Amino acid sequence: MSLATPETIVGLLHNDTRVKLAGIDVDGLLRGKLVSKKKFLSIVSDGFGFCSVIFGWDMHDRTYVRELAISNRDNGYRDILAVPDLSTFRRIPWEDNVPFFLVSFLDPETRQPLCACPRGLVKGALGKLGAAGYRAMAGAEYEFYQFRAPERNASSTATFLKENPVEALPSLTEGMFGYSLTRPVHNQDWYYGVFDACEQFNCEIEGWHTESGPGVFEAALQFGEAQEMADKAGLFKYVVKSIGTKHGITPSFMAKPREGLPGNSGHMHISLVNQDGTNAFIRPTPDPNPPYPDVAYLSDLGRYFLAGILTGLPDIMPMLAPTVNSYKRLVENFWAPVTVSWGLEHRAASVRLISPPTSSPKSTRFEVRVPGADSNPHFVLAAIVALGWRGVEKKLEIPVPPLSKGEDMGGAGDKGVRLAKNLGAAIAAFTHKDSIAREVFGDEFVDHFGGTREHELRLWEEAVTDWEVRRYIETV
After folding, report:
1. More exposed terminus of the chain, fewer Cβ within 10 Å: N or C?
2. Which pTM was predicted?
């Protein structure tokens, strides 16, 4: 629908009476409403007012401990401008095919993208490389746990967890069985329902299988243009949660829902292509004198892009690991990277290089393996593109040697810088006055998103956990 116009949309909505609209907040959550077709057609070109409080409160609608600039008491939680993106038109198959559009959030005075609008942040990052004649292609992979809601009623899960430990929530299937052909049959209607709904909702799944862990599944989304991939990745979660609700299943995209088991990753693949669609990371003939053998088939552009990601990685961690729980996944020996590291076909590294001689030239790309499934895909892609392009502009050198195949901790020892071990350390690096995050995204975004993460950390520091109670209530 890239050529969609208000006129073509009128024709597409000929038999409809209602339209669903949604934007994306900093946590990657869809925030929207159902409107009449008459209302939609009246705002389709100029946009409409949307309460800014979605950028003034957290994922549970609690206003931030420290009020931030976009939405606060002093500005009366003013309206911001929401403008429908007609190219995002699709229909929701599990809701009687109601028409659906994503919106972008703009500053009502300047009509420029709001600094914290996830869709605007991706657009800004892609605009820089687009001006140089390149396009970014991306693919997303998500692992997530599935729990069977008590009494097969997904809406009762929150109540159940208030009264019971999370361990009591039954997994969709038991045991460790990655790539099983029989486990999906246990919940066949749900399993194929998710796949088919994604196809109909234009966030197509390329591969869909069980992962190692009780009730754990993994989906690889069909690769495409980076801006569209960010949208599709966010909408994929919407599909999974919606279809799950109809089957009494609660999916969890938490980075680490269960102690002692692997966490949920949200790996992102990235490559750049020229205007004719050819992969810009390809080196047609191997470099006889590469800085490292791993990059013999990687173009100079690709090397600079890799260097940019690696150099900036420590400073943008809240964008890849945004919650307190994110850092429970990023620990040694649990199939998650913990340092600034990379390597050819190395799944323990922060950045896995996929290129010849182990893959076809046209498939040359980077897989950034730090993000968890809890991350906002728009922020993940914006960060990867912005850091990579910074490397290109500055012609940065790859800062660390490739990870040896025998190393399984993401760069243990002195080869790689240890990534933040917790959200507090990540926020400190992100908001530092000289951080690379400020250089590529500007102070306005860093101050806002950093403030939202400080709120998350503050709530955690004030919380009394079940672990503390079990350990100390009787013994101290």
Report:
1. C
2. 0.96
Look up residue 129 and give its amino acid. L
Kindly state the percentage of the chain with pLDDT values over 70. Answer: 96
Beta strands in 357-461 (DSSP E): 365-368
- The Cα 4–Cα 120 span in angstroms is 19
Alpha-carbon gap, residue 467 to 447, rounded angstroms: 33
Decide: helix, strand or coil at residue 1.
Answer: coil
Q: Are strands 249-252 and 268-274 parallel, antiparallel or unpaired?
A: unpaired
**pLDDT tens digits for range 324-371:** 999 999 998 777 999 999 999 999 999 999 999 999 999 999 999 999
Q: Is the pLDDT of residue 415 over 50?
A: yes
pLDDT over threshold 80, residue 219: yes
CA distance 18 to 380: 33
CA distance 4 to 323: 37
Instruction: Please give the mean pLDDT across all residues of the chain.
Output: 94
Question: Does residue 113 carry a pLDDT above 70?
Answer: yes
Q: According to DSSP H, which parts of 214-299 are helical?
A: 226-246
User: By CB neighbour count within 10 A (0-12 exposed, 13-18 middle, 19+ buried), where does 98 fall?
Assistant: middle
Q: Are 347 and 406 in contact (CB under 8 A)?
A: no
Q: Phi-psi category of 193—alpha, beta or left, where left has phi over 0 and alpha has psi -120 to 50?
A: alpha
